[in-house]
Amino acid sequence: MVYFVGAGPGAEDLITVRGERLLKEAQVVIYAGSLVNPELLKGVREGCEVYNSAYMTLEEVMETIIEAEKKGRMTVRLHTGDPCLYGAVREQMDILDREGIPYESCPGVSSFCGAAAALNLEYTLPDVSQSVVITRMEGRTPVPGRESVRAFEHGATMVLFLSAGLLKELAEQLLLGGFKEDTPAAIVYKATWPEEESHICTVGTLKETAEKYGITKTALIIVGEAVRHRQYQRSKLSDPGFSTGVR
């Protein structure tokens, strides 16, 4: 059996209870290199085979999983955050489907949640933003033209993965998409790790803020008025004018 497990955003105690249990039961663990906190591997069982996929091709990863399956061993494929976001899991699952190997997914805490925690941020403030767009700048992996940053033109809160090294281009795309230079933004480096940093800035100062603090990768970019968390309306969740069931 193969389990795709979300390791969480970084802190070793932010893996789910289920994920931790699966990790302790695994006989083979293939983890996502420097993106997964190595402290999580301290709890693996004695004799567990541990592989760092940063030094493996997709073919090598799948060969290792298939070989473990032939020997009747349980494998955990440990991905950063939640594997459903930029986890490249579908291509692995398709191969397992072809091989007739069963698998399950165990969700994890995404780094966009960890970044919000670092900023004490609520993405969906009433009367400010009720939508969150999770996307990325185009790099080695292409982005469909209809999903380019400039194409959204929505004004909703944006969370950008894998874009910390393209902040000049990102700012240009945000401005073309309708944001203003003074729109609030934040850079969160290694959310929930011990070396976590968070810096509030604007769309117009994204690049210089990252340069000031030497941030070039492993950071999330958050853009929108929700970053400022001002001038929002009280939630209807506990409004005295509403009864349970309609809040």
Task: Please supply descriptive tags for the structure shown above.
247 residues, alpha/beta, 5-stranded parallel sheet, 5-stranded mixed sheet, 7 helices, 26% helix
Structure description:
The chain is 26% helix and 20% strand. With 247 residues, it is α/β, with parallel strands linked by helices. It has a 5-stranded parallel sheet with strand order 3-2-4-1-5, with helices on both faces. The chain is built from 7 helices and 10 strands. The model has no long low-confidence stretch (mean pLDDT 91). It starts with a strand and ends in a 24-residue tail after the last strand.
Topology:
Layout: E1 2-6, H1 17-25, E2 28-31, E3 49-52, H2 58-70, E4 75-79, H3 90-99, E5 103-106, H4 111-119, E6 132-136, H5 149-152, E7 157-161, H6 167-176, E8 184-189, E9 197-202, H7 206-213, E10 219-223
Parallel strand pairs: 1-4, 1-5, 2-3, 2-4, 6-7
Antiparallel strand pairs: 7-10, 8-9, 8-10
